[in-house]
Amino acid sequence: MKVYFIGAGPGAPDLITVRGARLLGQCRLILYAGSLVPEAVLEHAAPDAERYNTAELNLDEQVALYRRAQQGGLDVARVHSGDPAIYGATAEQMRALRELDIPYEVVPGVSSFTASAAALGAELTRPNVTQTIILTRVSGRASPVPERENLAGLAAHGASLCVFLGGNQLAGIVAELRAGYPDDTPVALVQRASQPEERRHVATLGTVLDDIRPSEWALTTMLIVSPALAGVEEAQGSRLYAPEYAHRFRRAVKEEE
């Protein structure tokens, strides 16, 4: 038997990877993060597979299911939202699996930060603007953030910054970010990216809270603050596809004299 940590993607059932969908359909036991993974994603699962919503289970109860699957020779699909490598709480599960000598494999997924950029029709890395993306979150009861990674310090880089799981602390997040970014820096809120309920709010750091009720954005919201979101029409593009730019796969087109 084997446990597959499957990235379900941002929520749209057709944004799970082909590999993830195939394995989900093959596994007889499914553990999924029901607070974040929509039921629609489970349409890829076999109808008669056992299903457990891990939002209702502590780690010991999940490990007990892994042990039962091991005894019964059942493959397990452990379905996480987005990509399992980002705020997936997978490390403690993997440690338990190693102690039980249960093999596991990680199947990557589409992250909510890339789905949010797609919803905005935006590129988060632009030449001469920023070539860096910072992924972070604010402290919660379950997962504190080290003080050296405080938002004000990260904002000082002036890069594209994506804040996960912070919708219930929007006012405090904006206040910290204003210590490092100018008030006219573009900001976008994307809630439930890729899902039917998706909605977006685009503003600047100085005005983002003016026209919304923060309480309505408390759950499943990505905050992106980035200079790359400004002046897209006038922006200088990459030279990668410029006719006069040559590389190992393409010759340059010389201008006619």
UniProtKB/TrEMBL annotation:
Q: Name one GO biological process term.
A: methylation
GO MF terms held by the record = precorrin-4 C11-methyltransferase activity
Q: Which Pfam families match?
A: TP_methylase (PF00590)
Keyword annotations of the record: Cobalamin biosynthesis, Methyltransferase, S-adenosyl-L-methionine, Transferase
Domain Tetrapyrrole methylase, first and last residues per copy: 2-208
EC number per UniProt: 2.1.1.133
Family annotation (SUPFAM superfamilies): Tetrapyrrole methylase
Record pathway: Cofactor biosynthesis; adenosylcobalamin biosynthesis
Family classification: Belongs to the precorrin methyltransferase family.
Q: What NCBIfam families does the record point to?
A: cobM_cbiF (TIGR01465)
What is the protein name given in its UniProt record? Precorrin-4 C(11)-methyltransferase
Give the species this sequence originates from.
Answer: Deinococcus petrolearius
Gene name per UniProt = cobM
